[in-house]
Amino acid sequence: PAAGTVLTAGTQTLSVLFTPTDATDYTTATASVSLTVHKATPTITWAAPAAITYGTALSATQLDATTTPAGTFTYTPAGGTVLTIGTRSLSVLFTPTDSTDYTTATATVSLTVNQATPIITWATPAAITYGTALSATQLDATSNVAAGTFSYIPGAGTVFTAGSHVLTVLFTPTDTTDYALASATVTLTVNQATPVITWNAPAPITYGTALSAIQLNATSSVPAGTFTYTPAAGTVLAGGTQTLSVVFTPVDFTDYTTAKATVSLTVNKAAPSITWAAPAAITYGTALSATQLNAKTTPAGTFTYTPAAGTVLTAGTQTLSVLF
Questions:
Q1: Which of 50, 232, 245, 308 is the most buried (most CB within 10 A)?
Q2: Residue 245 in contact with residue 230, Cβ under 8 Å?
Q3: Tell me, what DSSP letter sits at residue 61?
Q4: Digit-coded pLDDT (tens) for 208-235
Q5: What is the pLDDT of residue 139?
Q6: CB 180 within 8 A of CB 113
Q7: What pTM was estimated for this model as a whole?
């Protein structure tokens, strides 16, 4: 065949026809030779893949060798394989469709598989009240890696002061070969606690009784603090049902709010004390007057006597009465 011809693999015959310029003195001549055409080895192009993280299955992203002739690539390990961490060797066998002219070809590349960092899921906990110890309600982080240990800082049982506090967790996977340690933080709000006031309704009192510790005797679940009563001790309340109130101001105003409470107090009417000395004896015919009808009491009011002033009593012992 002519120059430029690409022969198939195998033993090929080349022939030549010589035509002399001096066709008068020379005839044409021919000759032939055998040429062995060896099969070509395909050139595989396969760049080293970018490093992947443990857990990533091999795919066309890593198994992307190319070559010029048509054919089939067979990878080892195959697509879908999950490799352990470290530097791993990937190999490929190329089988050409045209097996007459091409040999099979192989290639290898190195792939770095890095440790995976576990993903921690930890929602911000709901706010708690001062005095509430940390528990699994707040310390409830989870990981996409099933096996491992969570270490919380601070730990369960801790009681925070009121305010915002940062909680931290360190996850140590059981498989420390393929997984790295992971950590996460959340913010926990601790609200002030409201002291619990205990104040039983006082027993009824009689008008004129001043308020004292007998009625103003509230207590609190928080030992240190000040009670401010309205009305204050020493107040004399009017008769009827009266409302007593108290404000408790804790010494620890960082962790506790003030607290309020009320109770009802019944103030019964007072019975006035009447002072009335027995009058001196009188003589029949003497009309009753202020000399005999001279009862006294503290509050202002009206005295109604029976018998009334001006009455002339019969002789003997008579009963005088008064209604105030």
A1: 245
A2: yes
A3: T
A4: 999 999 999 999 999 899 999 999 999 9
A5: 98
A6: no
A7: 0.66
